[in-house]
Specification:
40% strand; DNA Polymerase III, Chain A, domain 2; single chain; 2 domains
Length: 220
């Protein structure tokens, strides 16, 4: 999650992770305005006085995830503190997770407004390796043969499928390579629409993490 959070800037809320409690999951969201990552965790928690939303410091988010991995399950109660902090009650133990505060972006409204793109499937490791070799920017070409990555005068054809119309998009290769490290499984679904729409990545067979990355506007 932390890779998509801002490292500086005036908007302090973008330097944290938004935690939201859904009916059957806890959602974590991070964005630096160029990338957006959403991770839904199937954690059974009790939240008196729903809804609950807090923007956590990165270190506090890691503490929350560590508690979840330890298996707090349905024994946890989440409460909103008076100053925006998040209180996690595990049995008789109460942990306070500090909040950055601020107004986190209404990312759902932005996502709903996006036109649907076409979905292809590509080998995750092959795509990550080709993007890492690109080192900065790369052009993704989608056609009937699948996906190719063009960078530094080299074109790398990758195993995969692309059922949609031909597409071409210029991307920050480092951003996409970093996102692929946090997805699970051998294959990823990659969704692409118009050249200036976000490129979407998610695991093809497992996981609940989805990443949106803004493309680069071509100079021409």
């Amino acid at each position: 999650m932390s890779f998509a959070a801002a490292r500086g800037g005036a908007r302090r809320e973008l330097r944290g992770v938004a935690l939201e409690v859904r009916e059957d999951a806890v959602r974590l969201v991070a964005t630096d305005s160029y990338r957006l990552v959403i991770r839904d965790l199937a954690l059974a928690v009790d939240v008196p006085g729903r809804p609950l939303r807090a923007v956590l410091e990165l270190t506090e988010m890691e503490r929350f995830l560590a508690a979840g991995e330890a298996g707090f399950g349905g024994a946890a109660t989440l409460l909103a503190g008076s100053r925006g902090e998040l209180l996690v009650e595990l049995g008789e133990k109460r942990t306070c997770l500090g909040s950055i505060g601020g107004d986190f972006p209404d990312y759902e409204a932005l996502l709903v407004a996006l036109p649907a793109g076409s979905n292809g499937v590509v080998a995750r490791q092959a795509l990550r390796d080709s993007l890492a070799r690109a080192g900065g920017t790369a052009t993704l070409h989608f056609d009937a043969r699948g996906l190719s990555v063009a960078a530094r005068g080299e074109v790398m054809r990758l195993p995969g499928t692309w059922p949609g119309p031909p597409r071409q998009v210029l991307v920050n290769s480092d951003y996409l390579a970093e996102a692929l490290e946090h997805l699970a499984g051998p294959d990823v679904v990659i969704e692409v629409g118009e050249p200036l729409q976000p490129v979407v990545l998610r695991s093809a067979d497992t996981g609940t993490c989805t990443v949106w990355t803004m493309p680069i506007r071509p100079e021409s």
